[in-house]
Automatic annotation (TrEMBL), chains A, B:
PROSITE patterns xref list: 2FE2S_FER_2 (PS51085)
Origin species: Oceanomicrobium pacificus
Protein name: DUF4445 domain-containing protein
Ranges where the record places region Disordered: 653-688
Domain 2Fe-2S ferredoxin-type: 5-109
């Protein structure tokens, strides 16, 4: 009796002996190697491609003979001649093991392949979507043993794929009989099976083998912008990204004004629900067109949103979110269908909505947590999703805490005299020479600093039209560093500062960042009011962070992650000078980009991540800033730049900050004026 | 230490000691006594009414003192003064046990009460519907421990009612917050939880206590008639019944002609689906109006139908059911929502469709099995659901077999020269004097026999217009008994029979049942063609029964149950004379009425019955008559009246049958003519 051949799979290293003549795919299954197949070994889908090694493998103590795999059979030859195969590749379902062999499974042949994320500090995503496509051969009906076609399909799924009996909606049952007969009893099934312990759903049955990929949609529904990523569910790849202004803006710029609209106008909530669903519909259509696919190929979707948008999307009146105690209608994750939200997808397309964390900390914050995984962090991380309402997460392996802080819209350029959205023409970066008080800046749409040759030409098209959120933060931080603004936030006069770019506006001063009036452009200044607006916003943000730190019993954090599209553009140094975030080494302040969108994508591509975030949100300690007595004290102390009490020694060691004091009387007055106003006039506290 | 009082509940006999001061409801729960409550002990719903006994209970060895229950408290007094209470009754949630007591739980206070069925031989139904109504107090939101209103409602359901976390559709989540606040955190929840192992569904949340009962609908969707029963889900009582002609009749009278319509006309199946759903919608509206309730109080529905109607209802093209191998799209039970069938109920109202048994043996036959429970029969029972297509079940505790037999429409009066539907004016009962050959008959709409005084007046309004199905069966059986028809089915001439009511029609003879021509009415005869048509139908029925008996290895059955509305009108004796059913003592032939409708009602009122029938249909042995070689032989042998081979000795012992032979030559010819034609010309075999 000869020994069975030894087969070693790489990169897994799994090995074992299998009877001569065993197909590679069968050997892989036997040994628990992750090798994909959609057609179940029929040589149609080519998902089981492998690369056999030949020659010496000293590491494995093995010499692989050229005939260790069977010759190409007709099926494999046919596949190669029609569809092509990369040199050296074989179809794992056709090639049989005839001798000792080392077989490499390339990444794209693994079911649970890794979707590589660009940032080093976060985990890659393991591909394990809710949607699965399989080819099955169904037994023909037999009058001697009558059973339904659907029941025989279920038997085939169980036998050929070990899939438990699925449920099927009526339209699928209606298409079943023609599909089976047209496909000569061979059909492609698309099944949905998420993280919940329940039977899978059969979403469609089509005749023969359906080779086209399926797609999923990850949507971050923001107050201002709706962002969507279309992902190939076979590869995890983002094939198209698209954004849209939230059409609800016509009902109010910020969340509180939308809640007010719902309160004041009967049917207002329904109107806003219709608007956002219509916008989503448009986005779905656009993104499918961009990717060149039909919307019927999109078979799964995940949504994240802040609580107000979450409720409006679901058709729930958000009125309770506008008043204490800020009760969500539901905080749990939701599994819905496209039909429920009137989306232009196939009506039974599953939708998954991430859970909310609390009344002010929504599914978008949950998605940030999923992306940044504070609960797995070795060091203590503060994650700040900066927007009109900032959500903060503080935690490590021990515990994660969350709160929201009503920063208001100043960080987004609103309530700033020369403020504007981040669009071409907006000043986004600022540097001020501490000796002369002379600024230089960069404008969105140009790569050049304003003192570089060719700058004027480069901004001809856009002009220089205003300052965006990141620009105003840098401008004020630089003014502070240059001694033009004191710790109390007061802009000194030209005399006090010796800077001729300071002009007088009534009883206060303003700093001229750019004077375009000679060319018919605007005079762009940073006014005392602008500084006060940013102080309010940054104090709220910092106070929220401090509240979490208090609860955790710490007075510093190891690192800070800035999330949100806006967070990606904030310079860590300037955020520190301004005292937006707790003192922390500059290199420990990183940007996570649109972490909420990434979290949505993770939940789309990996169903285990859905269980993970559902479990995590229940474990996160929620802090409601609106009822924390210490919030007010933290807020007042954070009004100073960078801070009245916290030393920011780390920052000061690398960035010297001068300490002028421009006017005692004026400062006292300033303190009165900056008494906490949370949210807009008349709007309840705590949301926004 | 004094002994705790002893409490004995009747009729259950459950007993135990409970601490003094325990409310009767709490004591019942502790001792496992079935005592209802919807409001959870708040003295609102009065579902926990009990009757305390006072005095000597020698059987229990107990003397009950008048003060064995606490005095009436304010809640109980208030309830009695406003809503009234039957004398002697107390509210179990308010009355506290203060001494040894015997407490009677009246039937209407039991959750799982028995719904009494009229027939002695069948089980009563234990009330255990899928719909449940409970009152809960929900915790108010707490900013210190934020959670969604829905999550707190779920906690309340778990704590107060031990109900696992339900799922809720978006409209329910949308109505949740206003309902909780309007009801001051007390709401009535309607939940659906059927026999499947999955979370319950929250169907609605309304402020405060909703005292109005909920209803369920049991629908038997037949080819000709749609019959619906509206049941009170608290009592099991049928509060309204309504029927409607199936609007699909315009596409074809019988099932095969509807399948043909779907085959020949693109979109024909969808047209018929729309028609039947529209008809159902009308029925739903009518039955609710008849009961004086809103359709929104109907929160559950169960449907049974034959396979073709089943598919058309679901929107599945029935074309495969019109040709071998008669494959159902699905045979399993289905859980749907009203929305799926476009019914004018609340969109999320659950619908349950019973499983089909085989391609010709539908959910209606499954419902008959549920009602008649052959699998629990001690003796061997043959259940025949007589219709255009007859379904047969044969079985006992050992095994149940099923088949269908294409009887054609003759039993329903179609293909009969003077045939008509069972409607006023139709002859439904016939007797022929064996000596004189003179008939007397009864007509639908009159209680009198035709030879009684006042008969003519009683039928003035309707006239005497034709013969219905039961009438033609009795007429031919009586003709056979009177020696006017021989065993081969040939009508003798007036000379051969000595009966002057026999007339000649070409080469054959006909029997004049009624001659109304003098008054402008019709001449109603039983022709040779009529006898042949009934022979075909009864031979098919008998052959099906024989096939089942062969498989079971028996040559007689212990009893026969005739099901179907038509079955209820067949006279057992005449069915036996005709040889429709196997020989059997006349008193062992009973009618089950609309057993399919009853089965639907059972599945509506008791979810365990759903599991039961789903399990049973997989165990039933299905016999496909179309491919059984012996069917043809059985069919030919059954052509004789009552039978060529089977002796019918039991019948003959009580009903002497003369044995004339009218014409050798003609009989041979008849044999040729009665060669098996299954279904209508051009239509495939096996269905109808």
């Amino acid at each position: 009796m000869t020994t069975d051949p030894l087969v070693i799979f790489t990169p897994s290293g799994k090995r074992g002996r299998v009877p001569r003549g065993t197909p590679v795919l069968a050997a892989a299954r036997q040994l628990g190697v992750d090798l994909d197949s959609v057609c179940g070994g029929r040589g149609i889908c080519s998902r089981c491609q492998i690369t056999p090694g030949v020659g010496q493998f000293p590491k494995h103590g093995l010499t692989v003979a050229p005939d260790s795999l069977s010759d190409w059979n007709a099926v494999e030859e046919r596949y190669k001649s029609i569809r092509g195969l990369i040199d050296g590749r074989r179809l794992g379902c056709q090639a049989k093991i005839e001798g000792d062999v080392v077989i490499d499974v390339p990444p794209e042949s693994q079911v649970h392949k890794q979707v590589i994320r660009k940032r080093a500090e976060v985990r890659d995503i393991t591909l394990a979507p809710a949607i699965r496509k399989v080819l099955v051969d169904v037994a023909e009906p037999d009058m001697h043993d009558p059973s339904g076609d659907f029941e025989r399909l279920c038997d085939a799924l169980a036998e050929q794929w070990d899939i438990p009996r699925p449920e099927a909606a009526l339209p699928v049952l209606g298409e079943l009989q023609p599909a089976l007969r047209k496909g000569k009893w061979q059909v492609t099934c698309i099944l949905h099976s998420d993280h919940r312990d329940r039977p899978p759903t059969l979403l469609s049955v089509t005749p023969g083998f359906d080779e086209d990929p399926l797609y999923g949609l990850a949507v971050d529904l923001g107050s201002t912008t709706i962002a969507a990523h279309l992902c190939n569910l076979d590869t995890g790849e983002v094939v198209a990204s698209s954004g849209l202004m939230n059409p609800q803006i016509r009902f109010g710029e910020d969340l509180m004004s939308r809640v007010s609209y719902a309160m004041m106008n009967p049917g207002g909530a329904a109107e806003m629900t219709a608007a956002v669903r219509e916008g989503l519909g448009q986005l779905v259509t656009e993104i499918a067109a961009e990717a060149g696919i039909g919307t019927d190929r999109i078979r799964d979707a995940v949504f994240v949103a802040n609580p107000v948008m979450h409720h409006l999307l679901l058709g729930i009146d958000p009125v309770e979110l506008g008043q204490a105690p800020f009760a969500l209608a539901t905080s749990g994750a939701l599994s819905l269908a496209a039909r429920d939200l009137d989306l232009p997808l196939l009506p039974d397309t599953p939708l998954y909505i991430l859970p909310c964390i609390a009344g002010h900390v929504g599914a978008d914050a949950a998605a940030v947590a999923l992306s940044e995984a504070p609960q797995e962090s070795e060091d203590l991380v503060l994650i700040v999703d900066v927007g009109t309402n900032a959500e903060l997460l503080l935690g490590d392996r021990t515990e994660v805490l969350a709160c929201s802080s009503p920063t208001g819209p100043a960080f987004e350029g609103a309530q700033i005299s020369a403020g504007q959205r981040a669009a071409p023409g907006a000043i986004e970066r600022v540097e001020i020479d501490p000796d002369t008080g002379t600024p230089r800046f960069r404008v969105i749409g140009s790569d050049l600093w304003s003192d570089a040759d060719g700058f004027d030409t480069s901004v001809l098209a856009s002009g220089i039209t205003g300052i965006c959120g990141s620009g105003i933060i840098e401008a004020i931080a630089e003014m502070r560093r240059a001694g033009l603004v004191d710790a109390g936030g007061l802009i000194g006069s030209a005399e006090q500062t010796g800077c001729d770019r300071i002009i007088t506006e009534g009883r206060t001063h303003a700093y001229v960042l750019h004077d375009g009036r000679a060319d018919g452009g605007p005079l762009i200044t940073v006014t005392q009011g602008d500084v006060r607006a940013i102080q309010l916003a940054k104090s709220a943000l910092y106070a929220g962070a401090r509240l979490l730190m208090d609860r955790r019993g710490v007075d510093h954090v190891d690192r800070v992650v800035l999330a949100g599209a806006f967070g990606a553009h904030i310079s860590p140094r300037h955020a520190l000078i301004l005292g937006m975030i707790p003192d922390c080494p500059e290199e420990k302040v990183t940007s996570a980009g649109n972490a909420a969108g990434t979290g949505a994508r993770i939940a789309l591509l990996n169903t285990a991540a859905r269980s993970e975030i559902e479990a995590l949100v229940t474990r996160i300690r929620k802090i409601e800033t609106a009822i924390e007595p210490k919030f007010q004290a933290h807020f007042v102390a954070a009004n100073h730049i960078p801070h009245a009490e916290d030393g920011f020694e780390g920052l000061r060691a690398s960035v010297p900050l001068p300490e002028p004091r421009f006017n005692q009387r004026d400062e006292a007055e300033g303190k009165t004026r900056r008494r906490r106003r949370r949210g807009a006039a008349g709007a309840p506290e705590g949301a926004g």
